[in-house]
Each structure stands twice: as structure tokens, then as C-alpha cells.
Amino acid sequence: MSSDKSSPRSQKKRKTKVSTKAKARKRPAKKQLRKTKARFLKRTTVIPLLLISLVLFLGYLFYLDQRITERFEGRIWQLPAHVYARPLELYVGKYISKEQIMFELDYLNYQKVEDLPQRPAQYRNWKDVFEIKTRDFIFWDGEEDSHTIRVTIKDNKVTELINLYTTQGVDLVRFDAGYLTGIFPSHSQDRVLLKLDDVPDIFIKMLLLIEDRRFFTHWGVDPLSIGRALLVNITSGRTVQGGSTLTQQLVKNLFLTQDKTIVRKINEAFMSLLLELHYDKMLILETYINEIYLGQDGRRAIHGFGLASEFYFGKALKQLSIDEMAVLVGIVKGASYYNPKRNPDHARERRDIVLTTMQQVELITQRQKEKLSSKAVMTVKHASSGLYPAFIDMVKLQLQQDYQADDLQSEGLRVFTTLDPYIQFNTEQAIVNTLPWLSKNEELQAAAVVVSPSNGDVLAVVGGRKPSYKGFNRALNAERQIGSLIKPVIYLAALQDPSRYTLSSILDDSEFSYQAPGQPDWQPQNYDKEYHGEVTLYEALLKSHNIPAVRTGIDIGLDNVIDTLAALGSKKSVSALPSITLGAIDMSPVEVATVYQSFSANGFHSPLRSVHAVLDKDRQPLERYSLEVDNKVKPEAIALVNSAMIDVTKYGTAKRLSDSLSIQVAGKTGTSDDLRDSWFAGFSGDVMAVVWTGYDDNRPTTLTGSSGAMKIWKNLFKEVAYKSYRVPEAPGLVRSWVSAKDGLLTGKDCENAVELLFIEGSQPQQKGDCAAGSSGNWFLDLFN
Amino acid sequence: MSHLFRLFSSIFLLLLLVSCASTEKHSITEDAAVATGNYRYQAWRLDNSGQFEAINVLLDEADLLIENQSYDAAVDKIERALRIKPEYAPAWSRLSWLALQTDSPKRSVQMAKRSNSLAFSDPELQSLNWSFIREASEMLNDVEAYQRANQKIESLNAF
């Protein structure tokens, strides 16, 4: 504009130029001097500066390069150990309720469908019939293929198990093992590593289409993409598109922070170029697939498509449908905003964009796109990690014997445990639902340990009234007086010598005082504060009288009692004090379970184990924890005690159990001084459990063993125990009818008659008033 | 050499037992068992296979693994069988034999004792278990236990 040229400012500029030129003409020598000076400066400072900068730059590049190669040549990730529950196995004859099978399928995130299950992890159900397609799974002893089966359940038993396609009978089906939790490093990143071969081709095409179309042609940075993103962002006035390549995203995740600074961007670009210089495109893609952050599960960060696929859909990536894959690819843009669990609408919108893009480049047809877009985003309601902390403590305890904590947190181990999710759930429910009935005081605590009698497998552990609370684990660490739970141990020690003790032996239940030098007299009392005179050993155990147990313990020797406790599997160091005969021994529920497992297995002790096997990250076996048995007590003597413990649950301190349970069980109540601890330990033919209730500060409760812990135990066994416990038949054992009062032989129909078990040759010989063949009525006998 | 000796003597003993075992319990013919020279527990296969065929399947798989000398894997299969039917004495006996093959004589004794505690009505299996105990006692240099086992075997054989 002409007016502009004549403005005062432009005139001033012109004037200045003119004036400068004039000066230059006037002083050529000065200019020459300055030029010489500049040349000199350039030679002496600028060039060395440039050289120094170049060296520094190259050094910096070298440093970046080192960072990249160090990470890539070594272990890229710390992989947490993944912990699994025991797998469900089905076969004809297995005891299982419909409720349990529903629970197990739900726990494993199987999807209920209306039609025949076509894909793994689907099932349909009507009445007593389940049609299921299981997942394939790699166990420590090999791979289990997917099965398509029909299971019929009647009267809590599998009555039919057939292959759905061939209609042939199937002998045994093992389901996949449910994921329990991870043992994480401090950053809590979790991932399931995938090889590129495990990733479906369509998924790779979809991912590259959305995230980096020129991945196979660029060198780590794509100027075209950056330019396009810049244009789109400028025209829309906000950041709507990123220009980062997959390589840049990977570099950012692996090496850099999430800061949006120019320095970070420059580093990212250089490192991307270096990464591409060093490594193959396919390795970079595989690493990206395993690294990308895709969500959060509490403290656990979900990384990589392998884990994300399992976390969101309960399936392996290769088992996903195209729409499910599209959801996962959509999450990359924003793991929180497009989280399909929390924001299914956002996830669906993003999925549809992915599908539309796919259709535009003809990866799918228009019809396919429409069909896939019409589907809802269905995720699995995954049991969040971090459940069952008390059981996991036990797993860690066992693994600590063979593994460093660091290995557990970083080597990607796969740990197969013994946890039975259904029994664990019911143990938790029994505690949570029963405690409010026992006391209104919410400080009353409980703990439980459930074990498989035959092999010592720990099936469930609950460490407190809030089972998912990760604090003090009472099942493992609360050592409390066991009270009368010691009595079966004392009587077992005595009955191992049948020449001195039998179930019909008469014990003295009268006032008793124990004198030790320099100690005040110790005068134990019965719970009812009364003395019962002469009682049989059988009755003393049934009614849990204290004084006969004390007298017997002292008679056979306290060391003998301690040795028997050890023979049953206890590793507890116990002092030979007379009070141990009343259970003044501090033990945790797990320690008690160790001892009672031996009773439940008829004297064959198996150390409790919570882990079956460990695989490495490549699913190769590392460690197996085999079944162990050890027998240090006479099985015949155990049979006598167990037969009496059956009667404890029918006629003794736990007699209320027989009203509630339809199967035969054996057990013993335990109550410590002043009702501070309430215990119950008992077993059926298939489950053994120990339950404790009490206060953490050891204050008295109002509960005995039968009014407290036993109620929890009963509610648990109503749900999970199917098989009656029976004393095994064995040579050398005989049964005789005796009077429970005086221990003499008696007739079956006589008063107080009870059929007791004896080690052959030790049964009583003396007949009582109402002897065998006698009715007990002399007048009637005259006529008989 | 001692391994081979143990293996052959065990095979001989088992074949002897298989040939002596009651035909009612067999699910294959004695001839077939002998002819294949197998060292399997088919003499003790469960007859009510409709209900517990799962156990037979697992023990058959264990036998195949044993043939390939994959003893640990065979133990896994047998332990699975025992989770299904813990009172199945022949499976415990099989674990006892496997423990001998892996030089674990103490374990072998315990497994054999467990088997015997469940096999009171099966003198043949008891005799086999005592033979394992005898062999384990020899490995442990426990002369007294060896002789006791010998006496047991003799009395069971007489029975």
C-alpha cells in the first residue's frame, strides 16, 4: 500500500539504510578489519564450538543408543508371576452341584449362549444339562485341548459326560485354570507375552491401519504423518491426531516420560531412528504389542494386547472376534477414556471408527462392518486381582523356599496352586455370613483353613472377617491357645499302647492337683466346674472333660504327648508343662490344620501344600511339588480316635452338627480359658477344615467351640462336603458293644450301650450287668 | 547296573503277580499282559469303569510315560488319579514303585505303606508293596526292615 511507504516508520528505515551505506563507503578500511576479525573468530571459536557440539551430540546419540541396546539385549520387562487356581476336572461319578458348576463357569468367565457353544469359553444350560466348549490351556503336565462336551448332573453328581459332536462318552475333562492374581514388582505392570506368531494377521493389519500405516516403510519417524497430523490439528484448532509412529510410541513407553515437551519429542525421534537402525521391524512390532498400556485393574497396570485380551474378554487374542479386536485397537488412543469396562459407549464409538476404517480399505466388507458394528461391547466381569490375600500369603511362603522374591516378581513364572475357588468362596461366605450371628461386635474375628484330607492340598484360606483385606493374616499368623483340640492328640498317644488304654478304659474325673517344686499348685477344672467320677475314655472325649485328659496326659508322659503332636506333623516347639494337656499351646489355624490333616487321612500325614507346580515364562516346567505322605502313628490307634470323633459330632459337644449335615463327619470342639478362643476342627470324607474365632486383643468372647467356630464350620460343610467320613476297615480292629458308663461288655439294646472299636485283643472281657444276650432285665431273661 | 537289576526284578515280580491275579479283576487277558511284556497295573484296573474310567485313563497315560522313562510326568498323572479316588490302593503302590525308580527309597516306603493301609483285602497288592519296601530297605541299608518285609511277603504268599 502506498500510504504505507510514506509512513514515518518506513521513512525512518530507509533513512537508516542510506545512512549505513554512506558510512560504509566512507570507512572501507574499518569494514575490512571487521571481516578479518570475524574470519578469525570463526576459525578460532565457531568451528571448534561446532566441532565440540558435534562431538557432544554424537556422544549423546551414543548414550541414547546404549540405553536402547541395553534394554533390548537384556530382559525388556519384569514379568510378574501369574498365580492360578486348581483346574476343575469333570468325570462321570464326580460330586458336583449345579450351583458349583455355574460358579466355576462364571469364575472362568465363560459366556452363556443360547445356541450350541461354537467358540471356546461358551456354554449353554437347561435343567440338569450343560453344554460347554472349554478353552485349551497349558498345564505343568502338558497341554489340555479344548473339549466340546455335554454334562448331565443329577443328585449332585455327574451322571453323563459326552462329546457333543461324536456323542461318545468322555472319560475326563480338565478345564482351564482360573487366574487368581499376580506377584508383582513395585511398578505393578502386568502382561502376557505374545510371540508375533500368536497374533492373528487381521489384528496386525488392523493395528497398523489405525496406528501407523507406513510402519514398514518409514525409518522410525514418519514426516508425512507428522505433517498430516499438524495440518489436521491446525485446521481443527486442537490436537485431534498424533503423528507418532508405532516405533515412537514404543520408545516413549519404554524409555521416556509422558511429558509433552520439545526435549522429550526430540529424544523420542532420535531414539526411534536408532531403534530402527538396530532392530528388525518385526521385533519392534512384537515389542510394541507386548508393551502398550491398555488399562488399569486396581494397582495392576494392564500392558500388551495378550493380557488386555484376557482381561477384557477372558480369551486369548487369537480367539477374539474382529469386533473385539477392534475394541482393543481402539483402546490404544486412550486407555482410560476408551476402557470398554468403564466406558462401553466410548469404546463402542471408537470400535466403530476402527471398523469403518477397515471397511474403507476393504479389510472387511460393508456388510461385515454393519454386522460387527451392530454388536454390543461385551466384556467379562473379571474377578479383580488381589483376591484371596490369605491364600496368596501361603503360596508365597511355600515358594520362598525355592525362589527369591525378585524372581517371583520378574521372571514371568506361572504358579499352579491348589486353591479351589468354589470352596474358597464358600469359606469366605460362611465367615462373613455367620459372624454377625455370633456377635454384634464387629471386632470379633475369624480365620479358616480348608484342606484335602488325602494329600494335604490347601483348598481355601481366610485370614479374617474381611477376606479380601490384605492385612494381618490370622490363618497363618494368629497363634492362639488351642484348648480341647489337644485332647484327640493325648488320647491318641494313650491308645497307641492298647495294653494300657482303650476307648473303654476308665478314667478318673475327680479333683486333681498338680504340684511342681517352687510352683503354686495347679488345679484344672472341667468346663462345667463339676467332677464326673469315673468315666470311660470314650465319654471323656465326647464330652470334652478336662480332668481325665490332664490325668491321662500326665500318666503317659508329657513328652509322649509332645512326640505324638510332632508325629502328626506339628513342627511347633512345645515345653513339657502340664497345662499343655488343656491345650495351653499357641498354634495358628494352619498349624492346627497340619495336625488334623493327619487325623483326616487316618494317620498318614501330608505336609500342607498350596502349590502343585511352577512353569517358567516359556511354559516349561521348573518345579513340581509332589505329594508326600508320612506315617508315624499307629493307624489302628488313629481309627479309634476318629471313631470317637465321629461320635463327638453325633452325641458329644458337637452333636448339633448331625441335625444339619446329611453326611457323617468327625470333629472336635476347642475352647480356651475364659472363652478367649473358639475352635472347631473336623472332616468329612473329602474335606477337612479348621475354624477359629476370637478377638485380636485376646479378650474373652461369649463363645465356646460349639457355639462359635463350629457354626461357621457347619455352614461351610453344608455347601462343600459330599462324602461321609468312615473309619477304614482294617485287620486288627474289632468292634464290641460296651457300656459308655463303665466300659464293660454289654448288650446292644442295653442302656448306654455303644459299639466301640478296639485293637484286637484289647477289647474288654468283663461283662456288665446287662451283658450280651441279656436284656438287662433279670425277670425277662428268665423267660428268654 | 543296580537300576537294571531292580527294574528287571520288579518286572519279573509284577508279571508273576499279573499271571497269578484273579481273572475277575482283569480287564485284559493275562496272556495279553504277558505277551506285551508290559509293566502296567492292568491287573488292578477298576472294574466299575463306567464310573471311574477317568482313573484308568490317567493310569494308562502314566504307563505310557513310564515306558518313556518320564517318571515325573507319570507321577503327575497318578496324583491326578488319586485326587479323584484317594482310596485307590494300586495308584499309591504305583507311586511307591516310581519312587524306587527315582532313587527315593524313603518315599517309596511311605507310599507302599499308604497303599497297604487301603489294600487290606488284596494280599497280592500287599505283597507287591512289601516287595517295594524290601527293595527300599535294601537301598537304605536297613537290614531289620528288609527282613521284616521278607517275612511279610512270605506270609502273604503262603496266604
CATH superfamily of chain B, by name, is: Tetratricopeptide repeat domain
* Biggest chain-to-chain interface with counts: A-B, 33 and 29 residues
The helix content of chain B, as a percent range, equals over 70%
- The level 1 CATH classification of the largest domain in chain A is Alpha Beta
- Give the CA-CA distance, first to last residue of chain A: 144 Å
Could you give a short description of this structure?
Chain A has 784 residues and is an alpha+beta fold. Chain A folds into five domains: 81-182, Penicillin-binding protein 1b domain (Penicillin-binding protein 1b fold), CATH 3.30.2060; 185-213 and 293-381, Biosynthetic peptidoglycan transglycosylase-like (Penicillin binding protein transpeptidase fold, Orthogonal Bundle), CATH 1.10.3810; 387-478 and 588-627 and 679-727, Beta-lactamase (3-Layer(aba) Sandwich), CATH 3.40.710; 480-587, 3-Layer(aba) Sandwich (Beta-lactamase), CATH 3.40.710; 733-783, no CATH class. Helices cover 40% and strands 17% of the residues of chain A.
What structural keywords apply?
heterodimer; A: 784 residues; alpha+beta; Penicillin-binding protein 1b fold; Penicillin binding protein transpeptidase fold; Beta-lactamase; 5 domains; five-stranded mixed sheet; 40% helix; disordered N terminus; disordered C terminus; B: 159 residues; mainly alpha; Serine Threonine Protein Phosphatase 5, Tetratricopeptide repeat; 8 helices; 74% helix; globular
Task: Please explain how this structure is put together.
The complex is a heterodimer of chains A (784) and B (159). With 784 residues, chain A is an alpha+beta fold. Chain A has five domains: 81-182, Penicillin-binding protein 1b fold, CATH 3.30.2060.10; 185-213 and 293-381, Biosynthetic peptidoglycan transglycosylase-like (Penicillin binding protein transpeptidase fold); 387-478 and 588-627 and 679-727, 3-Layer(aba) Sandwich (Beta-lactamase), CATH 3.40.710.10; 480-587, 3-Layer(aba) Sandwich (Beta-lactamase), CATH 3.40.710; 733-783, no CATH class. Helices cover 40% and strands 17% of the residues of chain A. Chain A has 26 helices and 30 strands. Chain A has a five-stranded mixed β-sheet with strand order 11-1-15-23-24. In chain A, strand 23 (611-615) and strand 24 form a beta hairpin. The radius of gyration of chain A is 38 Å and the shape is elongated. Chain B has a single domain, classed as Tetratricopeptide repeat domain (Serine Threonine Protein Phosphatase 5, Tetratricopeptide repeat, Alpha Horseshoe), CATH 1.25.40.10. Helix content of chain B is 74%, strand content 0%. Chain B is built from eight helices and no strands. The radius of gyration of chain B is 15 Å and the shape is globular. Residues 11-40 of chain B have low confidence and may be disordered. The chains are: A alpha+beta (784), B mainly alpha (159). The A-B interface holds A 89, 91-94, 140-142, 169, 171-172, 452-455, 457, 602-604, 613, 621, 624, 626-631, 635, 728-731 and B 50-54, 56-58, 72-73, 75-77, 79-80, 82-84, 86-87, 95, 107, 110-111, 113-114, 117-118, 120.
